[in-house]
Batch of 2 targets.
Target 1
Amino acid sequence: MHTSIATVCLSGSLEEKMEAAAEAGFAGVEIFEPDLVASELTPEEVRARAERLGLALDLYQPFRDFEGVSEELLEDNLRRAEARFRIMARLGIGTVLVCSNVSTATEDSDEVSAAQLRRLGELASAHGVRVAFEALAWGRFVDDYRRAWRIVELADHPAVGTCLDSFHILSRGHDPAGIEDIPAEKIFFVQLADAPALSLDVLSWSRHHRLFPGEGDFDLVTFLGHVVRSGYAGPISLEVFNDIFRQTASGATAAQAHRTLVALADRTAREQAGAEALPTVPAAGHPVGVDFVEVRAENTTDVEEVLDQLGLSFRGQHRSKPVRLWSAGGARIILNEQHARGERPHVAGMGLLYPDVDAAEARVSTLGVPRVTRRIQAGEHRLPAFVSPQGVELFLAAGESDATGRPGWIDEFEHGVPQDEGAEAGEAGVYAVDHLNLMSPWETYDETVHFCTGVLGLQKGTSTEVASLHGLVRSRVLRTPDGAVRVPLNVLPAAGDQHTEHVALACDDVLAVARRAQRRGMRPLPVPRNYYDDLEARFGLTDTFLRSLRAHQVMYDRDADGEFLHFYTRRVGGVFFELVQRLGDYDGYGAADAPIRLAAQARLDAEPSQLSGSARPPRRRGRSVPRQLPEW
Amino acid sequence: MHTSIATVCLSGSLEEKMEAAAEAGFAGVEIFEPDLVASELTPEEVRARAERLGLALDLYQPFRDFEGVSEELLEDNLRRAEARFRIMARLGIGTVLVCSNVSTATEDSDEVSAAQLRRLGELASAHGVRVAFEALAWGRFVDDYRRAWRIVELADHPAVGTCLDSFHILSRGHDPAGIEDIPAEKIFFVQLADAPALSLDVLSWSRHHRLFPGEGDFDLVTFLGHVVRSGYAGPISLEVFNDIFRQTASGATAAQAHRTLVALADRTAREQAGAEALPTVPAAGHPVGVDFVEVRAENTTDVEEVLDQLGLSFRGQHRSKPVRLWSAGGARIILNEQHARGERPHVAGMGLLYPDVDAAEARVSTLGVPRVTRRIQAGEHRLPAFVSPQGVELFLAAGESDATGRPGWIDEFEHGVPQDEGAEAGEAGVYAVDHLNLMSPWETYDETVHFCTGVLGLQKGTSTEVASLHGLVRSRVLRTPDGAVRVPLNVLPAAGDQHTEHVALACDDVLAVARRAQRRGMRPLPVPRNYYDDLEARFGLTDTFLRSLRAHQVMYDRDADGEFLHFYTRRVGGVFFELVQRLGDYDGYGAADAPIRLAAQARLDAEPSQLSGSARPPRRRGRSVPRQLPEW
C-alpha cells in the first residue's frame, strides 16, 4: 500500500510538512497548492527536497471550478489549467485533482462536462499529466461520485480519470459499493477522511470536523474494501483538515495520521473479503482486565491514608524502588515516588491484562506508539510500557482477568500484608477497579480515542456532555464489551476546572464501605441537601433509604437496567477515588451526578483562598479546620 | 421593561450568578433547576439572598417530558411535578416552565396534551403556582409555538399559559407574527436568545451556539415588536447558553447580557410601531471617520522609522505628555510612550469621529461601557474615552470626516512639521486610514462585534475564514456603509500565531509609495516568487505589471468590482502597517493574500532563533543581517 497524505493536513511551512510526512513513514504527499504558493521554495526546490526525503509527489490539488461552464469561461479555465500544468512539470507531479464546479457552472449536463474534461485531458496529455476528477459533496451540479464517473466515462480520454474521497461519498450517505463498478485504471486517486456523525452543512462539516480513519463515525473499512476489490493499487492518501490539526505540531499529527492509516489497512485486511493483500500488524484482541493503576507524587502519604480508609491493605514496598502497593481483591493501586520531585498526586499509569501479551506488545509497537523505558534489576518482571497520546503510561501484562489472577510482579513488593489476607477489605467488598476516568486536552482527544480503540482494542461506548461550573465537558467511554476495562475519557476544559482524574473502585456494599471509611476519619465529598430533595422528586425513594444515602453522602442513579450507588473522596492533589456499587445490569456512570460532584469540588477549591468573600456566605474556618457537615 | 436572565447563562455557583445578575442591573432571574440542586444554599436561603439583592425570582425551569404520555406515566409525572411545586413554594417562585415532551410522549394529540396540562394546572393552582408551556424546537410532537398555544387554549385553565422563546421559534423559521394572536394574559413568560445562522441540528445549535441579542443573525427586533404589540408586559428574559459564557467570569457575562438587552429594547422602540413604550438610550448614528490610531510602547522609535519611510510627517510632540503625532492627509498616528514600561509596540487606541459627539458619549456611557480616565491640563481637549471588550481604547471626537477636518486636539502637539506641509506625503498620496485590523480572543469576539454594532453604530460586513499556518482565523468586517470606518476583526487563534494587529493606510499610488519607502531603507514583508507565478495563473496579468508588483513586493487582487494593490511592512513588535490602493469599486481586503502574509511573517519569526535547522535550508545570516531579496 502506497501511503500518502495531503500537505493541508499538517501545520507549518511546506518543508516542515514534507519532513514530518517522511519521518512518519508516508511514501508520498499531495501538494496543496496554497502551501506551495506561500512557500519560499521554488517548485524545483520542492522536487529536490522530496527526492532527498524519499517522498513521492503524488498529486497536485485542487484545481477548482473547471467544468460545466460557458464556452468563454472554458477558454479562461484552460489557460488557468495550463499555467498549473507548467508548475506541475517543474514539480514533477503527474496527476492533478480537479474538483467538480461549485460556483461558476451553468450547464447541468453530463455531455457538456464530459466534453470540457476531454478538452482538459488533451491539454494535460500535451504536458504529460493526468486529470483526476472528483465530485465534491457540495458541487453545484456534480455532487455524487457515480455521476463524476459517468462524466469521466463519457469524456473517454486516457488522461481523464476519477478521484474518490471517502468524505464526499459518505457524508452524502452515498453507497460506496459502486466503486467496484469503476475500472481500476480509471481510478486515478483515492483520498480517505473520517468524520464524526454530525448534522451540519457538509461544507462546514468538511472544513472543520474531518478526522483521521477510525477517529470518527464513518465506515472506512467497508469503503476501503470496495476500493481494494475494484483493483485499484495507487496511493491511499489522507486528506483531513480540522481546527485541531492545524494548530498542532506537524510531526505529532503526521505520526498519528500514519498510525491510523496502518490500523485501518490492518482491520480492512482482516474483515473484508478480497482485501487480504493490504498490510497487517499483529493482532492482540482486547484487554481482559485492569492489572493496576499507578498514582505518582513526590509524597504519596495522603493517598495512602485515603486507601486505608477505603479498606485497601498495604501489600509492600518494591524491593528496589520507592514504590508501594495497596490492594483489595483485584483492585491494585501502585504509589510511585520515584523521579516525582515537585509532583502532586496524579494518575500516571495503568496496567492492562492481555491473554497474549507478546502479541499486544508487538501490535502497540508496530503501530509506532512511543515506548517508556522502565529500569529493572535482575529477577524483576519486564512489563512493556508505552505512552498514550494524553500522557498516561500504559503497561502490558499477561493475565486472564484482574480479579482472580495474581500478577508475577507482585513478588517484587516486600514487607506488606500478604496478598491473601486483609479480612476487613474483604468485608468492605472492594474487589476491582470499576473504571478509570482520564482527561485529555482537546488537542489529543480524538487521537486518544483512536489509541484506545485502534491500538488497544477497546470499543467506543456512549458519548455525553456533562455540565461543569465552567463549561460543558465532553465525555466518551472506552471499554471492553463485558465492562472488565472501562475508561471514561473527558475533554479537559479550556479554562476553569482543574486537571483531575479519578479511580473508581467496585465494591459489593457501598454504604458499608462509606460507613467504615467515615469511622476511620474519611470525609467524603459533601453533597448538598438539595440533591437529596431532588432525588426524592425524581425517583420517589423511601425516606429511610434517602436518609441512609444522605448520612453517608452517597449518590444514586437508576435506569431501566438497574441501580447505581456511589460516593467520592475529596481530591488529593490531582486525583480522587470513587466507590461504586452496581445493582442489576446498570451499565452507566451516574452522569447526572457529575455536575453535583464538580460543583462540590469547586466549592472546596474556593474555600482556602476565600476568593470572592462578598459573593459567598461568610466563612469563619480556614483551610486547616474544614467545615463540618451536619450529617456526620 | 422587567429584565431577567436565566442562571444557566452565567458561570459559577448559584450565589455568584445571582450577585452578577443583580450587579449588572437585571430585575430578576430564572432559576435553572440544576443550579439549585448543585447549590449548598437551601431554597429558603436562595429566596432570602434574592430579596437582599433586590432580585425577583421570575421562573423555575425546566420541567421536562410532562404531556402527551400514557395515563400511567402521567401519574408519575404529576408526582414529580408536585415535588417541584413544593420546592417552588420554598423559593417563592410563582411560575414554572414546562417544555414540550421530547422523549416519553406517545400521544400526538392536542386534546390529550391539553387535558394533561389541565390536570397539571389544577395541581399547580392548589400550590399557588402557574405553568408556562413552551414548544421546544426538537419536541417529539409539539415543536411549534402556535401548536403549544392551541394546546394551552384547549387546556383552558387559568394556571396554564404559554412561554415564548425566540430561539425555538426563529431556529425553525416559524413566523413570529402569530404572537400577536395570543391574548397577553396567556403569555406567561418570554425568553430571548440570538444565534448565528448555522445549518446544524437545532439541539446542538441551541446547546452550543446561542448568543445574546444582536450578536447573532436572528431578527429579534421584529420578534420583540410582536411581543410588545401583543400587550405582554411581563419579564423579558435572556436564556442563552453557549460554550463561551460557561467559561467566562459571571460578572462580565452578566454586564454584556444586560447591555445587549437594553440595546435591543432601544432599537425595537425606535424601529417597531407600537413599541415606543420600551426604554431607550441616546441615539448617536454611526461614526463618520477615523480620527486617529494610537500605537503604544515603551519606545516607539522603530514605528517612527517605518512611518517616515511610508511618507508620513512628524507633526509634533504633545505639550504635556510623551506622545508624538505623525500624519499624512487624514491618516493620523499617535505614538504614546506614557505608562508603557515594558510594552512592545501595539495598537492601543482608536479615535472615531461623530457628528454629535455628546450623543455618542451619552449612548456609550448609558450602555454601561467602562470609561478610561485621561488626565488633561487646562486648555487641553477633553476626549471621552472607553474600553472595548477586546481591550482597545476608544476615543470619541466631533467631526464630519477624517480627511477634511482638522481636529482641535492637534494644536496640543508642538515643534513638528505644520499640518498643511509635507509635500512628499502628498506625492505619495497617503490620505487616510483605510482600515484597522483588530484581534479578539474567542471569548470576547461576539461581545466585541456587538460593541461595534449595537453600541458604536457600525454594521456587520462579510465574514470569512483565513488559513494561517496554525489554524483557520475567523474574520468579520465591521464598517460604515460608505467605508469611512472599516474594522476587520479577527479571532486570535488559540495557539501559534502572535497577537498582531495592523493599520492599513489608503493611498493613491501604492507602487510609488513602495518605491520611495524602499529608497528610504524600508524592507517590505517578503512575498514568495511562487505567489507571482500563481497570480499569473489566476489573472493572466501582463509581464510588465507582474514584474513591477514583484519588484516592490506588492500583492494584487481583483474581483467583479475592481482591483486592489497592497503591501505590508514588517512587524514592529505587535503592530505592522499595510498600504492599500483601491481601484474601481473594489470593496474587499485581499483575503486571498492573507495566508501568504501570515506564512511570510511566520518565516521571519522563525529566523532569529533558527528553531528547526534541519527542516529549513541552511541560513548563514543572523538576526542583525537580514536576508536580502534579489528583487531589490
Target 2
Amino acid sequence: MTYCVGLKLDRGLVFAADTRTNAGLDNVATFKKLHVWEKRGERVLVLLSAGNLAVTQAVVSLLSEQLTSETTPGPTLFSAETMFQAARVVGSAVRSVKAIDGEALATSAENFMVSFILGGQIKGEAPRLFQVYAAGNFIEATADTPYMQIGEHKYGKPILDRVTQHDMRLGQAAKLVLLSFDSTLRSNLSVGMPIDLLLYNTDTFAADRQKRIERDDPYFSMLSEEWSERLRIAVSEIPDFEI
Amino acid sequence: MTYCVGLKLDRGLVFAADTRTNAGLDNVATFKKLHVWEKRGERVLVLLSAGNLAVTQAVVSLLSEQLTSETTPGPTLFSAETMFQAARVVGSAVRSVKAIDGEALATSAENFMVSFILGGQIKGEAPRLFQVYAAGNFIEATADTPYMQIGEHKYGKPILDRVTQHDMRLGQAAKLVLLSFDSTLRSNLSVGMPIDLLLYNTDTFAADRQKRIERDDPYFSMLSEEWSERLRIAVSEIPDFEI
C-alpha cells in the first residue's frame, strides 16, 4: 500500500507521498513515489504513484524516456500544451505498460493495480490536478473537492474533509496534509516514513520547495504530539453526551 | 457495510451501532444492529453485528430462542457463568448458522461475512468486551486497546486512537464515539443514521441508558459543527510547515 495526497488551492498545489513499498509484511523497502519534471520558467509537473511498483516505475521511466527520444509519436510531458494533454500522456503511458505487462501479470494472478495523481502548471494555464486510473482515463479536481488521495486513503480523509479550504496558505495546507499522514501512519503498517513533500506556488514555474520528512523530523514529531493534545482538549470542551 | 464500536472503560462500557443495511446502492433499509439481553440485577449482554443481515439475524434469533428452549444442550446467554462463556455461546451460534446456511451461501457466490462485538457484565466479574469472528472464535479487549470496531472502521479510527482514555466518563466516551461516527457517515454511504447508543455503568446490571440518535438530533448536529470548527482552530494554532 501507499498513501499520496494532492491539494489544489488558490495559491498553488501541495503534494505528499510516503515511501514504503512492501511485498508481504517481511519485505519492506523505501522507494520515492513523488516524481517531478521541471522546465524552469515554463512548466512544472508532479506525479504521485500508488500500486504495483514494477508498473509505476515502468510508467515513470517511459514518461522520462519520451522526453529525449526522437521517435515518440504524440506529445510528451515537456511538449504537452495543457495539463489536460499532460494527463493524457500519463494515461497513454499507463496503457502502454499494460499492453506490455498486463497479460503476464494476469497469468501470475497479479492485478494491474496502479493509480496516479498528476498536478502542475504549464504556462498559459492555471495549476491543475488530476487522478489517473489504471485504465489510463482520469478525473480533474474542482472547487467542490480540491484534493485527491490514492492508496490507503480512509484514515486520513476526515481531517482533509473538514479542514481544507481553498484560500489556505501552502504551508498551512502542508501541515494539514502531514496530519492526514500521521493518522494513516499510526494505523497502517504498509504506509511508512519518510514522507516526500512538494509545495508549488502558482506562476513560479519552479519546483524549489521540496522536502523529505524523515522519521526523526522535529516538526513532524511536534505536530503529532500537539495534535493529539489539542484533539483531547477540543473533545473535552464540547458538552458531553447525556442519556 | 456497517459501523459499530464498543469501548471498555474503567467506569463501564459504551456501545454504538449505525442502522443502515443495503443490498446495492438502491436498496437501503434501516435495521437495528444493537441487541440487548438483560437479567436485571444479575447480567447485561450487548451484541453489535456487522455483515450479511440474514446471517446476523439468524444468530440473534438463535441466541434468543435458546433462552426459552428446553432442548438447548450447552449454556445460553442467560446461564453462561462468565462473559468468556457467553462469547463462546455467540461463537457456537455463528457456527450453527454457518452449518445450516454456509454451503448454500457459497454456491450463490455469497460469502459468510459476519462479525460481532459482544460486551457486558455478569455478576461476579468485571465488565468485558469481545470481538467474535465469522469462524466463531473471538478476541477480548485489554487495556492496551480498549475498543473494538467492526464494519467500516477506518475513517473513525484516528479519533478513537488518539483520544480514548480508560478513565473517561461514559458520557465523554459516547461523545468521542459519536465523533468517530460523524467522520464515517461523512465518507461512506453504506453507514447511515440513526445511531443506536447504549452506555453501561459497571455494577448496575441494568441496560437503562439507551438512546437512538436520529438524523435531526440537536446534540449530534451541534457536535458535528463544533468539531469541524474546533479542528480548524486547532490546525490554525499549530505552527505552519515551512520549507
